[in-house]
Amino acid sequence: MSGSEDTFSLLSPRKRLLAGLVLALSNFMVVLDLTIANVSVPHIAGNLGITPDQGTWIITSYAVAEAICVPLTGWLAQRFGVVRVFMVSMMGFGLFSLLCGLSMSLGMIVMCRIGQGLCGGPIMPMSQTLLMRIFPPEQRGGIMSIWAMTTLLGPAMGPIVGGYISDNWSWHWIFFINLPIAALCIMAAAALLKPVETETQKLPIDFAGLALLIFWIGCLQIMLDIGRDRDWFGDPLIVILAIMAGVGFLVFIIWELTEEHPIVDLRVFRHAGFSSGVFTLALCFGAYFASIVVVPQWLQLSMGYTATSAGIVTAFTAMTALITAPIAGRMIGSVDVRIMISGGAAWLGLAAFWRAHWTTGADFWTLSMPQIFQGFAMPFFMIPLTTLTLSSVEPSETASAAGMQNFLRTMAIAISTSLVLTIWGDGQRVARNEMASTLQAGDVQAQLGASGFSLEETRQYISNLVDQQSMVISMNYVFFLAMILLFIAAALVWLAPKPTGEVVDTSAVH
């Protein structure tokens, strides 16, 4: 944003501090909502009378809507002003949070989660931009570290808060708790941030590009979400959706590369450092999010964990990430960021390999240790990847590059959620059939019959046992695939040229 060098003088130190805390809180709320629903899916599915597979639409609809809105953030800020966009987005986020909590059907909650994602998309980059405007250059490093902490803490607290609320209150309250936070942020922004509003200008919007973006992403996500219930390409609808997504994607690329004012600036991909960096980020986030989606559901459906306990196991990753985040930040100036990124991705791969050996006999700490181990590596790929990607493009392309980076990260989360649940479900069916074909159940039936079990109870017991084992076998396979992707990501980053070491100006980031 132009003029960020002197806007910090418009606020007193006390107002600046209060504004900084409010902006960090707003970012925390939006990031929290990415994971708060994950552990609550079994509760929501049971309450609405839908399957857990259908319940995952609640996760993916939010992520996809956010991904669609992120590329628009820069245009919205220049057209209407950063503060105004931030406040309107916060109002919309609060309204759709209320409607999510009041939802009584799958259709309604998915539509409201889409609204939440569309409004939440601009909040994260806008809070970052406003922090850069209200703090002087010598304080920006410290305040951005606090902002980054909320980005790490949100996914950690999401499963715990969501689990506790689902177990002790009602799943509706995982959305209602956003209302007082949103109201506080709106009132504080109105009182504190008006002096640092940015200048506006009328800009043309690429409506055709936006329509194509929504079209191909929508077709792709619907295909991924309903494919596992419709035998994939054995169903004509899935084939049609796949063709529509593919054609829409190709037309979108051609249009954006030839449009004078593209909604998504694809020209940034000509920089090798940016391209290898964002694809590394997408692979890492996709593989990392696999555990955030699968582990809480497995613990609740198969291992008898409450939503709160499942959330604690999942959250250990981000808790330990908070410890190493300051270390990673200090190392950026003195260590080649490619070494940090590659090492962090390989470390995550080892954690996935560790989890690929879980069994149904694993206790709480056996399940938690890989999560703790994984957390230490998170900052070593998250923090330097931003430096690598944004230092690889021209200064005038920083906003576009940051928007594309956020877009691919969010899309990776949405797509991996659908793919992981598909692979997990298909793997369960394959493992169950293989076990059923080789199982010698006669002796077990005889022993259980002698213990007083009826024939029906015996069959149900054996069936439950097979289901439990097939679930963990399939999950181990998912983690093995995640390990392979993470090792590929660790190698992919070396396609980037060595960074120049220049300080990246993130004040233009949207």
TrEMBL record:
Q: What is this protein called?
A: Multidrug resistance protein B
Membrane-topology annotation of the record? Multi-pass membrane protein
Q: Name one GO cellular component term.
A: plasma membrane
In which organism is this protein found?
Answer: Sphingobium baderi
Task: Return the similarity comment.
Answer: Belongs to the major facilitator superfamily. EmrB family.
Query: What lineage is on file?
Result: Bacteria, Pseudomonadati, Pseudomonadota, Alphaproteobacteria, Sphingomonadales
Q: Which UniProt keywords apply?
A: Cell membrane, Membrane, Transmembrane, Transmembrane helix, Transport
Which Pfam families does this UniProt record tie to the protein? MFS_1
Query: What NCBIfam families does this protein map onto?
Result: efflux_EmrB (TIGR00711)
